[in-house]
Amino acid sequence: MSAPVNTELNPITERGRMAPKEYDAILLASFGGPEGQDDVIPFLRNVTRGRGIPDERLEEVSHHYRAFGGISPINEQNRALKAALEGELAARGIELPVLWGNRNWDPYIPEVLQEAYDAGHRKILTVTTSAYSCYSSCRQYREDLGMALVDSGLDGKLEVDKVRQYFDHPGFVEPFIEGTIAGLAKVRAELTEQNQGGDDKIHILFATHSIPTRDAEAAGNSSDEPREFAEGSAYVAQHLAAASAVMDRVNAESGSETKWSLVYQSRSGAPHVPWLEPDISDAMEELAGQGVRGVVVVPLGFVSDHMEVVWDLDTEAKETAEKLELAFDRVPTPGTHQKFVAGLVDLISERTVANNIAARPAMTPLGPWYDVCRPGCCANFRGEKPTIAGADSTVGSVA
């Protein structure tokens, strides 16, 4: 049984749709991460640049990288994803090279764009390793690409676009459905063996990165086309919609109605600044008090098993579960799952002239999301910067 897929464009998305183009390269853009102990502090300086945070404070928050030898898994995972994309493109006969650039570590986006231009590329389509709408998940990528074009003098010479946010694309959601079904079966079997109950004692926690509530409220909040979102935020609404799509299938497959909720992790910043809640560990403590004996954690906000997954979930959240004597299973992220890789190539094909896919599949009523971000969407409260791929963008096109 397949989940229902919406392939119709809503009126707002129709206006945010771009005509197919003849791109000559794909850019896989990601966050980046350190690859050794000596890289940790320089990497954290990049992440926090402009905030005036001293190295002493950065060292205090570096422990999760230090625990893994100073190596974040994200770069190796991006190498694997790049190779998988190249394989899927080749299998479909799509002759587009895949470039890779990071916002915060080598290979840096500005250098990759310069190398692309020097190699003769003139139209680049970007795929980011971020599925949702908020400042850090979408607009900051568009700003970094825009600033790279301006600072390198490539604006007006190199055209850079970006695929739509894909939080409800089947290629992103289907791997979570598979993983959640398997995770639920595993926790159910563990509780049955311990005579601690069935599905009524299990809770599914969909986990994502917390963000400041101010950023959450600005997510999807366009100045010219206001929309109503659950909890007043596209970021929250997109997660709730994707989780609901997962649970529709999970409950249909399992024949039960397992309870679930959206929780947050990886909070940072000043304590007095409000961020999205509840924290996953706090939620588990509350659930344990209500008689829940097992949890399935679904890292719905993440494309791959990078540091926020292997530390915040596999280490800290798992330790909380052990302390509370909760059965615990963490579902895999999409990573290089065949459906995810194929889905990303489908997103690319939505925008290309050759091998074009006209339909825009979406598994929630919120989608398909815009090809072109709406004016003012996911505002940067620190000040506007040059951006690509938006209705209010000032750079990224070629005259």
UniProtKB/TrEMBL annotation:
Fe-coproporphyrin III binds at residues 72, 141. GO terms for molecular function: ferrochelatase activity; metal ion binding. It is found in: Cytoplasm. SUPFAM superfamilies: Chelatase. Pfam families: Ferrochelatase. One of its GO terms (cellular component) is cytoplasm. Its EC number is 4.99.1.9. It catalyses: Fe-coproporphyrin III + 2 H(+) = coproporphyrin III + Fe(2+). One of its GO terms (biological process) is heme biosynthetic process. Pathway: Porphyrin-containing compound metabolism; protoheme biosynthesis. Keywords: Cytoplasm, Heme biosynthesis, Iron, Lyase, Metal-binding, Porphyrin biosynthesis. InterPro entries: Ferrochelatase, Ferrochelatase_C, Ferrochelatase_N. Fe(2+) binds at residues 209, 308. Involved in coproporphyrin-dependent heme b biosynthesis. Catalyzes the insertion of ferrous iron into coproporphyrin III to form Fe-coproporphyrin III. Belongs to the ferrochelatase family. PANTHER family: FERROCHELATASE (PTHR11108), FERROCHELATASE, MITOCHONDRIAL (PTHR11108:SF1). HAMAP family: Ferrochelatase. This is Coproporphyrin III ferrochelatase.
